[in-house]
Amino acid sequence: MYAILMSFAKWLEGTPWGVGVRTSLWAYPFTQMIHFTGLSIWIGTNLALDLRLLGWGKKRETAAELADDLFAWNWIGFCIVLLGGFLLFSSTASTFLVNVAFRWKLGVFVPLALIWHIVVQNKARTWGQTSETPMIAKFSGLAEILLWVCVITAAVEIPNH
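Given the sequence above, the corresponding structure tokens read:
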């Protein structure tokens, strides 16, 4: 399996976008900026909902209303993250694959956080119908925040380009 992943990584590095991001003076930092912008939108909208589930934030709006209001922005941010991350990965994919922090981030924390987020986002429509949030919703919001902290911590440990 590792050999297949490494072959795919080498192929990605040889694609025009992989070579372009890796060899251009400005493409890597620009792509990183795009990735971080998407992360700001994605994590920011997640955090807003999670904090609302914890009972913080605007009380004039229920968690269900907030989830609906942020839904489009949340997934736009995710798409931007995905595009930027893919381009960054393509530039030095084989280096990323051998990095322990990257493997934890993409192999464990991101899938867990993403699955948890989808569950929380769906359940928020039920949990958040009133201004009083059930304890399970509070726990779920806190758990999601902690999962995203794990993702960010692992990302910080990945060396730069």
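The chain has a mean pLDDT of 91. Try to locate this feature in the token string yourself.
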